[in-house]
């Protein structure tokens, strides 16, 4: 008697400049371990010579091809919102989506970035002071991280973004969701970092395709902790400079893994082995 075929999952990642992403390998390896026929594909806007205006077309194509779900990354986490049928409570509160489940003709948006960053923060910086923290970036990932930081007890979060209106919109959202006026728009980076306990980079600055640092090196100091969400490369210039000064640091690996853990669960309905996924992520090198 032939064994029953394993259930199939077809998933993908939509974003720009994502060829170095470890997400496909993470999902497929865990799927194999759980006996699933699991395929995960990259839908790279740069390679396809598209931008976020193609999202509707890409979503429709994914539905037509029987995709179970999609992960969404830079620069699409907010642009995708109007194209979805419904949002999880967390995605609605954050105002950004990184996971879309395609089921029964519906597109349901979720946010697993917030959980992913919070888990990494608890594991790597659980005892770090958090009276005042500076966050660089107010985009889709930034919105999720900011919610996680305030939920993890940051007293005052100062948000900087090249688009002032975007920073203000995030700050207004945060202050509507958390007691008091714990978030504010940053205007003077040197002053804010001078008073801060920690710095979090949620911009794409530091990625292989966008090298550099989101803050001038001279503003770093040894008693500042520094967290990063970029994970390719794992050792960004910001982290390298911070570590050279003796700063406590948190790289982007835990956020990358734990957002994938939750996305895997949403796509498959099965509980993945987080420890196995961390081990596999780390085995892929830096």
Automatic annotation (TrEMBL):
Belongs to the shikimate dehydrogenase family. The keyword Kinase does not apply. It catalyses: shikimate + NADP(+) = 3-dehydroshikimate + NADPH + H(+). This is Shikimate dehydrogenase (NADP(+)). Its EC number is 1.1.1.25. Residues 13-100 form the Shikimate dehydrogenase substrate binding N-terminal domain. GO terms for molecular function: NADP binding; shikimate 3-dehydrogenase (NADP+) activity. GO terms for cellular component: cytosol. NADP(+) binds at residues 137-141, 229, 252. It comes from Pseudomonas alkylphenolica. Involved in the biosynthesis of the chorismate, which leads to the biosynthesis of aromatic amino acids. Catalyzes the reversible NADPH linked reduction of 3-dehydroshikimate (DHSA) to yield shikimate (SA). Pathway: Aromatic compound metabolism; 3,4-dihydroxybenzoate biosynthesis; 3-dehydroquinate from D-quinate (NAD(+) route); Metabolic intermediate biosynthesis; chorismate biosynthesis; chorismate from D-erythrose 4-phosphate and phosphoenolpyruvate: step 4/7. GO terms for biological process: amino acid biosynthetic process; aromatic amino acid family biosynthetic process; chorismate biosynthetic process; shikimate metabolic process. Keywords: Amino-acid biosynthesis, Aromatic amino acid biosynthesis, NADP, Oxidoreductase. Homodimer. The active site is at residue 77. Shikimate binds at residues 21-23, 73, 98, 113, 231, 259.
């Amino acid at each position: 008697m032939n064994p029953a075929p394993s259930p199939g999952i077809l998933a993908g990642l939509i974003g720009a400049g994502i060829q170095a992403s470890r997400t496909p390998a993470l999902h497929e390896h865990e799927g194999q371990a759980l006996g699933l026929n699991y395929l995960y594909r990259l839908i790279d806007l740069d390679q396809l010579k598209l931008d976020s205006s193609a999202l509707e077309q890409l979503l429709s194509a994914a539905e037509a091809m029987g995709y179970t779900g999609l992960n969404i990354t830079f620069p699409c986490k907010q642009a995708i919102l109007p194209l979805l049928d419904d949002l999880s409570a967390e995605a609605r509160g954050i105002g950004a989506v990184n996971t879309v489940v395609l089921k029964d003709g519906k597109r349901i948006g979720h946010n697993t970035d917030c959980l992913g960053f919070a888990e990494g923060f608890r594991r790597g910086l659980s005892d770090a002071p958090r009276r005042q923290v500076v966050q660089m970036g107010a985009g889709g990932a930034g919105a999720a991280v900011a919610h996680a930081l305030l939920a993890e007890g940051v007293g005052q979060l100062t948000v900087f973004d090249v688009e002032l209106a975007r920073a203000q919109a995030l700050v207004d959202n945060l202050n509507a969701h958390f007691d008091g006026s714990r978030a504010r728009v940053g205007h003077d980076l040197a002053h804010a970092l001078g008073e801060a306990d920690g710095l979090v980079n949620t911009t794409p600055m530091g990625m292989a395709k966008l090298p550099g640092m989101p803050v001038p090196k001279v503003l770093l100091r040894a008693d500042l902790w520094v967290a990063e969400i970029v994970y390719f490369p794992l050792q960004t210039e910001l982290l390298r400079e911070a570590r050279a000064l003796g700063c406590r640091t948190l790289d982007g690996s835990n956020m990358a893994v734990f957002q994938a853990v939750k996305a895997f669960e949403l796509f498959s309905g099965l509980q993945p082995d987080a420890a196995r996924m961390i081990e596999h992520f780390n085995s892929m090198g830096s």
